[in-house]
Specification:
Length: 206
């Protein structure tokens, strides 16, 4: 049954001419099944890696694609290095990646290994982090603020961003920013009493 599903998956990805959720659903059923063999997961990764080199194809759904990679890294953690390689390559070579897909990719990278984001280079990590935070996609903003301490963002910049988003119109974004400030104070020594006072007053406002 497993091999039959895998064969069908390969065939659908090869012949479909428009975006369809069917192959992603089939792949997801295999990924989340604890009985699926490592060989099958490896084959799925090979399919995804091949697809990642053809992102201009209209049948390529980046968000679902990255979701599959994220799930592989969670359920089959020993494949995380391969997932990291594919995601890193995709983020660096696909400038038109949609915000939600980019946010999920970046969060997955730093969840697999905190060093992954810094390995991409400071300009990439900080620049993409800021552009996504200030972009229109609110769920992405919340996700990145929740993982803010994992990104290679200069402390002064990160503090400004977190303080700013404590006044975001969305309450769950404000909460993520405030939680981020709390975590920030745990790993950064703040000697500026005005900065500490500002954080305290903002928390009282919330």
């Amino acid at each position: 049954m497993e091999q039959k599903l895998l064969s069908s998956l390969e065939q659908i990805f090869r012949i479909q001419t428009k975006i369809s959720l069917k192959p992603f659903s089939m792949a997801r059923s295999l990924i989340l099944n604890p009985s699926t063999s490592d060989q099958t997961i490896s084959s799925i990764l090979q399919i995804l890696e091949t697809l990642s080199t053809a992102t201009i194809n209209p049948k390529f759904d980046l968000l679902n694609f990255i979701t599959l990679l994220c799930e592989i890294s969670i359920v089959h953690r020993h494949f995380s290095p391969t997932v990291t390689t594919i995601l890193r390559s995709l983020c660096l070579h696909c400038p038109s990646i949609p915000p939600r897909a980019a946010g999920l990719a970046l969060s997955t990278l730093v969840s697999i290994a905190p060093a992954s984001a810094s390995d991409l280079g400071p300009a990439f990590s900080e620049g993409l982090f800021l552009s996504l935070c200030f972009g229109p996609c609110v769920p992405v903003r919340q996700r990145l603020l929740m993982d803010a301490e994992k990104f290679r963002v200069r402390p002064s910049v990160l503090l400004t961003v977190l303080l700013g988003f404590t006044k975001d119109p969305y309450p769950y974004v404000r909460k993520a920013a405030l939680d981020g400030l709390i975590d920030f104070c745990k790993w950064i020594v703040v000697n500026d009493h005005l900065m500490v006072e500002g954080c305290y007053l903002r928390a009282v406002e919330l």
